[in-house]
UniProtKB/TrEMBL annotation:
<dbReference type="InterPro" id="IPR010038">
    <property type="entry name" value="MoaD_arc-typ"/>
</dbReference>
<dbReference type="InterPro" id="IPR012675">
    <property type="entry name" value="Beta-grasp_dom_sf"/>
</dbReference>
<dbReference type="InterPro" id="IPR016155">
    <property type="entry name" value="Mopterin_synth/thiamin_S_b"/>
</dbReference>
<dbReference type="InterPro" id="IPR003749">
    <property type="entry name" value="ThiS/MoaD-like"/>
</dbReference>
<protein>
    <submittedName>
        <fullName>MoaD/ThiS family protein</fullName>
    </submittedName>
</protein>
<dbReference type="InterPro" id="IPR052045">
    <property type="entry name" value="Sulfur_Carrier/Prot_Modifier"/>
</dbReference>
<dbReference type="Pfam" id="PF02597">
    <property type="entry name" value="ThiS"/>
</dbReference>
Length: 92
């Protein structure tokens, strides 16, 4: 299956604005994020801590819905899905 990943702000500088990643059927969001991170030398450090856990400041959207940290490993993907990766949002 093919899943589109869109990166924004700081993550766009690291990964580029958009990538399509091939995954085996039944793969989840956790598998996608690991494959996405592996595409860049500094990708793993941008998304994961030293123990392989997603950094708490990474904001994820799956098909335009926010995915909480606890739901990452349980989020199933399907062909044609879209995942967006954002840094923390701040402003004033």
């Amino acid at each position: 299956m093919k899943v589109r990943v869109r990166a924004f702000a700081r993550f766009r500088e690291i990964f580029g604005s958009e990538q399509v990643i091939d995954l085996p059927d039944g793969a989840g969001l956790d598998v996608l994020l690991k494959r996405f991170a592996e595409r860049r030398e500094d990708g793993r450090a941008a998304l994961f801590d030293g123990e392989g856990r997603l950094l708490s400041h990474v904001v994820l959207m799956h098909n335009r819905r926010r995915v909480g940290d606890a739901a990452v490993s349980g989020t199933a993907l399907a062909d044609g899905d879209e995942v967006a990766v954002f840094p923390p949002v701040a402003g004033g």
